[in-house]
Amino acid sequence: MTSTLWAGAGQIVDGPGGYTGVEAGPEWAAEVRRLAKERNATILAHNYQLPEIQDVADHVGDSLALSRIAAEAEEGTIVFCGVHFMAETAKILSPEKTVLIPDERAGCSLADSITADQLREWKAEHPEALVVSYVNTTAEVKGLTDICCTSSNAVDVVASIDPDREVLFLPDQFLGAHVKRVTGRENMHIWAGECHVHAGINGDELTAKAKSHPDAELFVHPECGCATSALYLAGEGFVPEDKVKILSTGGMLDAARETGAKQVLVATEVGMLHQLRKAAPGVDFQAVNDRASCPYMKMITAAALLRCLVEGKDEVHVAPDVAERARKSVQRMIEIGNPGGGE
Ligand code: SF4
Questions:
Q1: Which residues line ligand 1 (CB under 6 A)?
Q2: Model's pTM, two decimal places?
Q3: Candidates 80, 83, 141: which one to mutate for ligand 1, based on the most atoms within 8 Å of Cβ?
Q4: Exposed, middle or buried: residue 332 (CB in 10 Å: 0-12, 13-18, 19+)?
């Protein structure tokens, strides 16, 4: 880099919880924009990112939409503000681009709930089965997968498979249970994975919140560990079905603008509230569980993004053979039904 750096770059502190030490004020935002331009980079931010990261980004959305934007972007560098498997998916879909993540330690407890070796063993036990994986998986796991799915098209993906063929569904047990119930499929095995961050949104909490806010609508974004459990609970009758809207991110923002309700309970990661409040300032949006905050997502701090743009790190690499196999499973996902938005 040739230009003089903003003094704030010298204050970045690396700790076990991530990078800190930089205030996300207007000077920081201006420096981030300047460095992005200098690097010919576009900044993509997931909906669950901190508000300041969303506000400084070129695009905000869910992981699949962002991966598509990454593939179409004119810039040669993608700065992906999200968790690691999302940046990997962007790399899988745009192998010729440089993909950076501001902190490669930003993992995902759901993606980590199955390793490639565990999947190999599971496949060996069911050699004839087709493997369907939710997008919250590592590139290596995607490389061993026949079809990826989002929660918006998981039912369609499983329904598209020959009814006599066994299915291995992973890694989210809540989404798996939902798909099994809707398709009525008996020969479907479900991996017992979950997002530990959101194990806190349980039936009792959801029921209590719905009861104490009887006029509120309930928006469920089905793409995250927390929301897949809410999806499951809504299906099990824990909350009245007519009040529940299962929506992709884009659908949630449209519904926010159109709702007649004064209050909306939102069952997903709390970062989504920032976009909803911006879209419909007159509506009172409340989190079903305000502890539903993903600490991995929040590792992408102002300091981490600044360091990423200054140093060109952390770069995301996916081995070309793994990427090629993973790309096929992601492309099959896009071809079936409406994949909606990925997490
Ligand atoms: S909220 Fe859960 S599923 Fe989503 S990225 Fe974080 S750990 Fe993964």
A1: 83, 108-110, 136, 195, 197-198, 224-225, 269, 294, 296-297, 343
A2: 0.88
A3: 83
A4: middle
Residue closest by Cα to atom 2 of ligand 1: 195
* HEC profile of 110-166: CHHHCCHHHHHHHHHHCCCCEEEEECCCCHHHHHCCCEEECCCCHHHHHHCCCCCCC
d(CA 202, CA 254): 27
What are 139-158's pLDDT values in tens digits? 999 999 999 988 778 888 99
Class of domain 7-108+296-318: alpha beta
Pick the CATH number of 197-287 from 3.40.50.80, 3.40.50.720, 3.40.50.10800, 3.40.1440.60: 3.40.50.10800
Beta strands in 21-58 (DSSP E): 41-46
Q: What pLDDT, in 10s, does the model give residues 56-101?
A: 999 998 877 888 888 899 999 999 999 999 999 999 999 999 999 9
Choose one of 135, 141, 224, 272 to mutate for the ligand 1 pocket test, by most ligand atoms within 8 angstroms of C-beta. Answer: 224
Q: Calculate how far, in angstroms, residue 49's C-alpha sits from the geometric centre of ligand 1.
A: 11
194-231 as b/e, with b when 16 or more CB fall inside 10 Å?
Answer: bbebbeebebebbeebbeebeebbbbbbbbbbbbbbbb
